[in-house]
Amino acid sequence: MNIPMLPGVGKFGTKIDDMHPPFPWFFAFQQVKGLPERLLQGRTDIYLNFCLDYLTKDSASIDVLDRKVYARGYSVRSGDAWFQAFPQDVLDLKQYPKLEMPVLGLASVNFFEGLKASLEPVAANVRMVNVENSGHFFPEEQPEVTARDLTDFFTGS
Prior knowledge:
Elements: H1 25-29, H2 35-40, H3 44-54, H4 64-73, H5 76-84, H6 86-93, E1 99-108, H7 109-119, E2 123-131, H8 138-141, H9 143-155
Parallel strand pairs: 1-2
Helix pairs in contact: 3-4
């Protein structure tokens, strides 16, 4: 799947919405070994607050206390390691058999098609749910909807 990291002229909004899809420039940034840790040391809250604001439709859905918890619990090194594993993950994924069990894909508008495109080739029984009125952090923006969708999936509704 091709993911555009950078927007065209005039296409980068201050937050995602139906007209401004996310541009995950941070995927590439976090793959540079050692640099993000040095740049973000002591400033993780600035980076996380940008991401939380940019990737939500309603920034207020993640309040000050929740943001502090995110910042306290976030490890740049661990986060970077996850992104740095992507190239190997792509190679490894080709070796795995297709999943046969039911798989639930929950995503918001701007992430729905990308998640669907990544799940359908690797799972035979995919159920996709589009979580409306939210961005990347849909459990925080739409907690009741998220809980209902998870409950429906796990109870077979």
